[in-house]
Every structure is written in C-alpha cells, then in structure tokens.
Amino acid sequence: MKICRFDQNRIGVVDGDRILDVTGVLEHLPALSYPGPRGDVLIANLERLRPIIVELTATAPSVALNAANLLSPVANPTKLICAPVNYLKHLEEGEGDPEIHYNRHVAKIREVALFLKATSALVGPAEGVRLRHLDRRNDHELELAVVIGRTADHVGLEEAMSYVAGYSIGLDMTVRGLEDRSFRKSIDSYAVLGPWLVTADEIPNPGTLDMSLYVNGQLRQTANTCDLIVNIPELIVWASSFYTLHPGDVIYTGTPEGVGPVEPGDTIDAEVASIGTMRVPVTAA
Ligand code: MN
Asked: Which pLDDT value is given to residue 176?
C-alpha cells in the first residue's frame, strides 16, 4: 500500500494516477492527552488501521495525483537518522582485493558513524527545497529512506526488518562547509521525504532497488541498493544500540557517488524502483 499525506494534511492511498482520500482514518487514532507519545501517531497505529483504510478506499473520493501537493508521508518523526556515503563504487579490474577494499569502507563508515538532521528540516516534494547560503555549494544526496514502524531498542539482526513500516525516497540536502554535519544539513527543507510511504510488505527485498536522480533532466546519481555497504538491518541494529527508535523515525541510508550542486530554479527528479518518482523544485529561501 502506498500511503501519502497531501494538501491540507489529508491522508491518501495512491492508486495508479489517482489518490483515494481516506482522511477519515484519522478519526480512529487514539485520543491523546499532553504530552502524548513520542513519534508519529499515524505510523505507530498503521498496522491496526490498515483494515479501516482498505474499507474506506471502497467509497473514497479521489483526486488526480498530479494535482495534489504531496507532503512528507511522516509528519512527526523524533529523529532523522543519516548514514554517510554508503555505497561502494565497483572496483576496476586489477584494483586490488575486493574484500580488503570493502572492509576498509565499512571501517570508515563505522568511524564516521551516523548523524542526525533536525526534524524541522523535513518537507515533502511539493514543498520543495529552499536554498540558503547561496554563496556556498548546496548539494543533493539521493537516498533510500527507511521509516520505522514501532519502538525499537537494542534490536537484533534477525528481527531488525520487522521494525520497518515502509520505504520512501529521501533527499539529504547539504550545504558544503566545515561546520558540523547536523548544522549544515538541518536547514529548513533540507530533508525531503516522499512521494509517499510504500508499506514494507510491498518491498520484500529493499536491498535490490535501482535508484536515480536527475537535475534538470540530466542524470547525476544512479545506483542499486545492493551496493549499500552497511545494509538496512545493520543500520537498524547500529542505530538502536545507541538510541531508541520511535514510530515514524526515518533512516536516510546514505548516498551513492554523483552528488552535485543545485541552484535556485533547478528541478530535481528522484526515482527509486518499487517506490516511484518525485519531482522537487529548488528555489531560494
Ligand atoms: Mn547523506
């Protein structure tokens, strides 16, 4: 199931080129009293609400997908967790022992480690990226984004994937410079998530997905998630060994080679197989 949030916080199920409006499902969320639970209440209740969503689709009004303003499919994550560059470029023949090469990359990622972007940076594709500090280079990073479905603490490798609610396309936008990553990558709108959440049951093997990013129609990044160095279950184990993951938390799994600059007026098109495509306008803040 492809679940989106659109226009004025409406909830939809994507069906071909239409969105079935199932916003009525929100009436089935638990009544919350201050301060409420941590995390995204819709994602936390998604499994329980799925039969209700299916029931609503039978009589739901629909809107054209290309006429809807797509917001981030997750409204209230507690953390946007990010892996650094996490793809291994294929070795040229005779370039050395692939295993040594691979282990060196794993060691480097483990040393650099995961980092966080502020949740206030999160936007959907329709909101676009609003660049700041135009005197500096602003880069796109295409990433597979994993959305956590239930509270996860000290998760083991065998059970890690059972904590995944679904997948989206992520853009980890960055202003280049020497400041801490959490500062440079947390500018408002520098965490794009969309175009919807594809529930985990629809993507049984997220480790074999082609993905590409274009700027103004020109290919900048292309990769397959089979080349992830630290894979999705390992990322969940690693992250949850440091902090509890809450429903709606997002793991940006790291970008492949080909990151490059964007400028106001550019259009980013990002696609990940089994998820879809999203168009993200770039403007000046
Ligand atoms: Mn990144």
From this structure: 96
